[in-house]
Amino acid sequence: xxxxxxxxxxxxxxxxxxxxxxxxxxxxxxxxxxxxxxxxxxxxxxxxxxxxxxxxxxxxxxxxxxxxxxxxxxxxxxxxxxxxxxxxxxxxxxxxxxxxxxxxxxxxxxxxxxxxxxxxxxxxxxxxxxxxxxxxxxxxxxxxxxxxxxxxxxxxxxxxxxxxxxxxxxxx
Length: 172
What we know:
single chain, 4 helices, mainly alpha, 57% helix
């Protein structure tokens, strides 16, 4: 496989590390009615993360390690902010999987496409609506992969392309 495939797999792994961390915050702040949804997403991201660790090793790389902590793109003081964070995490994960779909072939491409689809569905559930081209920030209304909202300015710039290397917009 190409160096581009390995790099895209590493970026997806970094984004999954950040999503697992982010869902720890979401789960602690989201309303009781959505806690099961946050827990399911957390488990899904952990499973994807673990699979990507194996994938990166299979590609001959050393899997990128999780950071001890991640800077959140905005304050998450309440349930409404937790829901916005969950949608943003899913949008950013979809973006890196979009890159992996473009870079990979065969089984890895199919897995990346499935992960992109799952992230887009979760983002739509959290947000209450979908975006026209999940994972393709350059084709959405504001260029960030999301429909812009009043609190989405902090840390929302095309994070999965040319932004932070961890795929989340979080500071290292």
